[in-house]
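for ur thesis appendix - Cell division protein FtsQ. copy paste whatever u need, i formatted it the way the template wanted (i think)
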Amino acid sequence: MSWSEVGSRWRVKLSEVDWYLCFGLMFFTLVVFGLSMAVWKLNIMLNDADALPIEAVAIKGERKYTSDEEIQVALQDLMKRSFFSADVNQVQEALEALPWVYQASVRREWPAKLKVFLIEQNAVAHWNGDAWLNSYGEVFDAPTNDDIGPLPKLAGPEGQSKVVLTTYGQVSELLEINGFNLNSLSLSPRHAWHGVLDNGILLELGREDKMARIQRFINVFPTLEKQVKTVAKVDLRYDTGLAVGWVNAQKRASK
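the 3d part is after this line
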């Protein structure tokens, strides 16, 4: 085959190529490449803390025990991220990890602010010595705060905090109506109830009929009132009566 024949064949093949399709594919490829580069650059910019920093965090909600310094420390690492890359769920978790924070809600506000609403724990009682109970009967750990007034001391097995708090409310209400104040209430591992009044008298209530036994104490107390300073304990774990432990007897027993 001569070179002239080869050249004529190539000219025929080139004439058969669909140039519109080729240029269309090239244009589409360039567009896709350009969009990919734009998305890549946009992603870099959105995640650049220097280009789009978080300039402010607005904290709302009544706070008594959570300071600005605690919030700053909790968010110091998260604040290094950009406005768009900051995970509001992580911000929420960091705030709710603070000891006196019960709940936090976080949202972005354009162009560079995070808005936070905090709800603090409402401590209503001490729990097992070094923990606290909130108004829902949930246990939480937090440092002691002098701004909190005197609270009842409650105790019980793990998982029984709501039961103890509910029972305390019922028992203390009945006692208060009749002029008594309940300082502490505990539930033993064997589910027996023990209460202590503000005058130091220990009430042994047992496991059953605690409200009826409290009423029995209220009914009988007038006969003990003259000797209230020497009453150490009232055992109400009887079907119809009660037993009184005296202060002197308790001292002798302890010796």
